[in-house]
Design brief:
There is one protein chain. By secondary structure, this protein is mainly alpha-helical. The protein is 75% helix and 3% strand. It has six helices and two strands. A two-stranded antiparallel sheet has the order 1-2. The protein starts with 8 loop residues before the first helix and ends with a helix.
């Protein structure tokens, strides 16, 4: 079978429609893209945990998780390592991570589809203000303000 060297006119027309919509609604497109990224990353959580060595039976020998575990000694409940290991074993932490990502990503996309341009811009401005405030707090706590 010979390779296809051209794009179907119907596909090209749909891509042009999408491009025009993005130019007409840049804020909504940005928020939809962000929500889609969040949803995609949420789906990758189990694979990332497994790749790091947080296995269903505990830390996998020779992995990043095993190295971290050996440096800690006794792992206390509620620590980041315990949380990630719980998620790797399919415990409540996994449900929390995937559930949170799905809710945040879905809500982001829903907001982009339903809110007006001005409200989306205001939401983005509020988020930017919250992030800047948190960074200033971190600088102040570290003595670098």
């Amino acid at each position: 079978m010979a390779p296809v060297n051209r794009v179907s006119p119907a596909i090209l027309e749909r891509l042009q429609d999408i491009s025009a919509w993005i130019r007409a609604h840049p804020n909504r497109a940005f928020v939809i893209f962000g929500g889609t990224i969040i949803l995609g990353l949420t789906c990758a959580i189990p694979a990332v945990l497994q790749a790091a060595g947080f296995g269903v039976l505990g830390p996998v020998a020779g992995s990043i998780a095993a190295g971290w575990h050996s440096s800690l000694g006794l792992v206390v409940a509620g620590t980041p390592f315990a949380f990630l290991q719980s998620a790797g074993m399919g415990g409540a932490a996994m449900g929390l991570m995937i559930g949170s990502g799905a809710v945040i990503g879905g809500a982001t996309i829903a907001a982009a589809l339903t809110l007006g341009k001005e409200r989306i811009a205001g939401l983005a401005s509020s988020c930017e203000g919250a992030v800047n405030g948190a960074l200033e707090k971190i600088k102040w706590l570290s003595g670098k303000s």
